[in-house]
Amino acid sequence: MIFRQLGYLFKAAGNNLWNFRGRNFISVLIIGFSFLIIGIFLALSNNLTYLGEQLSNNLAISFFLDKNLKSEDLEFIKSQILTSSLVDQVAYVSSDEALKRFTASFPELKDILDHLQSNPFPPSYEVRLKKKTMSLTAITSFIENIRHLKGVIDVQFNQEWVEKMESLSRIVKAIGFFLGGILIMASFFIISNVVRLNVFARKNEIEILRLVGATNTFIRIPFLIEGFVLGLLGSLISIFILFLLIKIFPIYVGSSLGAAKELLALRPLTTEQLTWLITGGAVIGTLGSVTSVSRFLRV
Question: Which domains are present in the chain?
Fold first, then answer.
């Protein structure tokens, strides 16, 4: 008996989806587009987060030193640097080595350097940090401790870039949820209206079900299943299109972006993000159906 009732409920929901496939298809597309917007911004945010992590995992800090430091002072600074658990390697770069590097990187400026009376580059300690042990708070504290040592005249560190990447990632994610949220609200009302139309189309069948003693819940369930399926299909379509975009974007668009290619790349969503998108579609579809059934199916 129970299986026969379940069979009827799913069959009724399936008939609704197929008989009114035109408007159902449109509602699925709108839901898919709504979640696609969120997915795209999440993919952009994932990429920015990844770039920030890459910067963190390849951080190098340069501590510039007074040219007149004695060897024992240099050794003391190095020993203080090595006391930090963040440090992986320390390399001393002399003024002459710094000059050679600059000349090799910017040969067009060699003539300017030749006119200088002295080498303008101070010696430095280049410190490479360990991977996956990065906390900006810990790094900042480490830098401040070394910065105040006698003989350290300046510090170069790309902390600002890491922080900008993290901030930009949060902003992109917020924009995505804002725009997607507006579209999801539209999807919610569209599903509600689609289910309402389906309720009106099945008005005679619903009256017959009432006469034979069908309960309120029994009459409502097919419409709830219908909303659930519409929302689920919409979110799955958005994920499929996003997958295609991630594969196609670098080939047809990425090459024309130049230096911005790395920033605007789409990185695949995490399993958790995919789960939330799929769940979100199903929930929005079900809630839209519940709202419609509650308002327009007075049983």
Answer: 2-54+163-296 (no CATH), 60-157 (3.30.70.3040)
